[in-house]
Amino acid sequence: MTTAATDKMIADDGCAGRSLWSDAARKLRHDKAAMACLAVICLYAAVAVISPWVLSGWAGSFNYDNINQPPSANYILGTDGFGRSVMEETLLAANTSMTVALMSNVIAVPLGMLLGAIAGYYGGWVDDVIVWLFTTLASIPGIIRLIAIKFAFTGKVLFAGTWFAVNLDGMAGLYVALGVMSWIGTCRLVRAETMKIRQLDYCLAARSIGTGKFATLLRHVMPNVAHIGIINFSLGFQGAITAEVILSYLGLGVKDAPSWGRMVDAGKMDLVVGRWWELAAAVGATFIIVLVWNIFGDRLRDALDPKLRNA
């Protein structure tokens, strides 16, 4: 067979000659549903970044002549009990949910990957301690864990008196609570994958030439479980958004910023008198972002799954 014919066969092959990452990117680019969901996610992210700057005066824009007005040309989603635009509140609440989801996953995913990799690679008593830790936490219902840690954070300030002071009673406390409670799933998956990878030839070869355990873990194991972190980061986004909405609805979440959960709480009694727009706006915005993150996370998981690469 000629070289040209061989090159053509490789070019026609769906995955030959490409890395896992480039092959996954190619699959996502050709997946219309994934691209549509990604476009919606990018739109929400843009709104979350821009809205606090553009709508900075919303909190003080009381207009008692327009209290509880239904949707109209001037107010697309009506007004609330203070005469403020529900549309603007919905856009501002996107900033709260996206920020909490991003920061909580920035904490949870690296923490879960590191603990899972250490447990799977070292084994022994280290593995026993980490498995005991996440098994104990997993035995407690998630919402109970979050409520308990939020109550523990009430009135607390981390690094008080320094430039890095963090008020755990506000939004920072919410994403810290979500972060330190959401690493369990990532840890389990990375631990199981690490236990397989540590027995592969390249890890054995690295140890045979004198490479230390921790160096082998960082150089050879962590890059090969990175796809699990990316997938869990994506899937964890919608879980964090849902948790933020629930906690804010219960009065344990964000207190000093617009939130879809607070909008649901404020609008639930308005349904009795036919004022549906505030509740509908919050539920609709939450439903869309959770749905698109679910779909995109599933498609991303399929694209990054090595077992499906040749399917």
Mind explaining what this structure looks like?
The chain is mainly α. It is built from 13 helices and 2 strands. It has one domain: MetI-like (MetI-like fold). A two-stranded antiparallel sheet has the order 1-2. A hairpin with a 7-residue loop joins strand 1 and strand 2. The longest helix has 37 residues. The two termini are 26 Å apart.
- CATH hierarchy class name: Mainly Alpha
DSSP helix fraction: 55-70%
Average pLDDT figure = 83
Strand content: under 5%
Tell me the strand order in the biggest sheet: 1-2
- Relevant CATH superfamily: MetI-like
What kind of sheet is the major sheet?
2 strands, antiparallel
Number of domains: 1
**End-to-end Cα distance:** 26 Å
Rg from alpha-carbon coordinates: 24 Å
How many E strands?
Answer: 2
Going by CATH, the architecture would be: Orthogonal Bundle
What is the overall number of helices? Answer: 13
Primary descriptors:
311 residues, mainly alpha, MetI-like fold, two-stranded antiparallel ribbon, 1% strand
Question: Could you give a short description of this structure?
Answer:
By secondary structure, the chain is an all-alpha fold. The protein is about 65% helix and about 0% strand. The protein is built from 13 helices and two strands.
